[in-house]
Amino acid sequence: MAIEVTLPAWLASQGLHQYNKRALSVPSPEDNSTVHHQKALKDAAVARAAQIAPDASPFMVGTVASKPTDPIGDLAKHGRGKLPDGREASKIFINPNADASYYAHELGHGVSQKTKAGRFINDARHKINSNPKLGKALATALAYSVPAVGAALQEGDDDLAGSIALAAAVASPTLIDEALASKNALAIMNDAGLRATMGQRGRLAGGYLSYLAPVLIAGSIGNFTGNLVDEKTALYDL
Which residues are CB-contacts of 187 (< 8 A; sequence separation ≥ 6)? Predict the structure, then answer.
C-alpha cells in the first residue's frame, strides 16, 4: 500500500515544482499578471488585516520586483522587515509578470501573521526551519520514526491513513501556515474585485500540495517500515 502513495506523491511533487518554476519565471506580463493588479491587491490586504486583526498595528508591506531569471525561491517570497522608525512591515519578493494569485498568496502570509494565532504558527514554522538540530530531528521523525511507530502499534496493515496523519502532525506548522495564506489570498482577491478563476484556485491548491506531498511520502515510507517491524514481531510471536 505504501508504494501506491509514495510514487504518485513523489511524481506529483516533481511535477508541481516544475510547474511553479515555469509559472513564476514568466518573462513578460500576461492578463492576470501581478503588475496589473498589485495596488488593488495590496489595498485589499491592508483592509483585510484591519478586519481580522483590529487590535493589531496597521498592516504595512513593501514589494520588491524579482527578475524572471532569479532562483525560484526569490520569485515569490514573504519575509518580515523593519521600517526606519522601527515598525515591522512585510517584505514581499515577486516576479511582477507572475500570476496575481502568487502575489495574493504572499500577501496572505503577511495578513495571517497580524493575528495572534497566525503569528504563532509562522514563528513555530520558522523556528523549526532555522534550527538545524531541531529541523534534522523532526525530519527524521517525519520520515521514519513517528509514522513507523504508529504503524507498528496498529495491528495489521490497514493503517496508512494513521501514519500520514502522524506525519502531518509533525509538519503541521508549515501546512497550517500555508493554508492560512491561501485562505487569505482568496479573500484578498475577492475583496479586490479579482475573484479567483478556476486556474488561479488550482495554482493555490497546487502550491499547498507541494508542501503536502512530502508528508504523504514520509507517512507512507514510515508506514511501510512500521509494518515490516509489525510482521517481524508477529513471526517471533509464533
Answer: 48
Residue with cell 519578493: 93
Q: CB-hemisphere CA count at 13 Å for 220?
A: 16
Q: Which residues contact 197 (CB under 8 A, 6 or more apart)?
A: 32
Strands (E) across the chain are located at: 61-65, 76-82, 88-94
- Let me know how long the chain is: 238
**Stated pTM of the model:** 0.76
The residue written with cell numbers 484556485 in the block is 201
* DSSP helix, strand, coil percent of the chain (3-state; round to 5): 70, 10, 20
Judged by DSSP in three states, 197 sits in: coil
Q: Per residue in 88-137, pLDDT tens?
A: 999 999 999 999 999 999 999 999 999 998 898 888 888 776 666 655 55
Within 10 Å of residue 135's Cβ, how many Cβ atoms?
13
